[in-house]
Amino acid sequence: MESIKAVFWKPDPTAQMRKCNSLIRSNTRKLDRDMSQLKALDQKTRQYILAASKRGQRNPSQAKQAAQETRTFAKELIRIRKQSSRLATSKAQLQSVQMQVNEAFSVRKIEGSIKASTGIMKDVNTLVRLPELTGTMRELSQELMKAGIIEEMVGDSLPDDELLEGEDEEAESEVDKVLGEILQGKLPKAKVDEKPLEEPEVPEEDLEDQEATLEQMRGRLEALKS
């Protein structure tokens, strides 16, 4: 029945605008939830850095291991912050799309016609390629095509290597900057002493706990990207 109606009647612009705004709000809420999770993960990682640093200060025999841990956690924190920044940029783009879409429908109401917007198409193409938004952004792009606001279907999602560009090997200076911020300039020394000393044995359970913590953090980051 709906397909028959579509042949004889054009889609209701008001209904189309409501649906587009509903999809945009849904995407905004998704980004807000992801950003909230990243904020909590940021705070937890800062606590891990502080705890490792304090442990190294209390027990000189563990200073080297503690210094390595702080740098490892600092690298994870850099990744978290980069992803959080990417999501914040995506949210700003999404809000821009909403303003442009509402403006396009307003013009259509006044002039009785609508022109395809290359600006909206460019933003939607960028947003639909993000793993966090792919599904609902594809649905939004279809609605915008029906309304005549955009002319082309959007491309595929960004490849992992493009999303993670620059995240595999954080610059040591960036790690130092993060540690300086959290530890208030008191960077832990990577080496306890230049003299040859017996390497302190780190309990196996401590190493396992550290690896488990890092795996949990990486799991949360991957979950946000999927």
UniProtKB/TrEMBL annotation:
Positions of region (Disordered): 189-210
Acidic residues bias: start-end ranges: 199-210
Pfam families: Snf7
Gene Ontology terms describing biological process: vacuolar transport
Domain of life: Eukaryota
PANTHER family noted in UniProt: CHARGED MULTIVESICULAR BODY PROTEIN (PTHR10476)
Full protein name: Vacuolar protein-sorting-associated protein 24
Organism from which the protein derives: Cladonia borealis
Lineage per the UniProt record: Eukaryota, Fungi, Dikarya, Ascomycota, Pezizomycotina
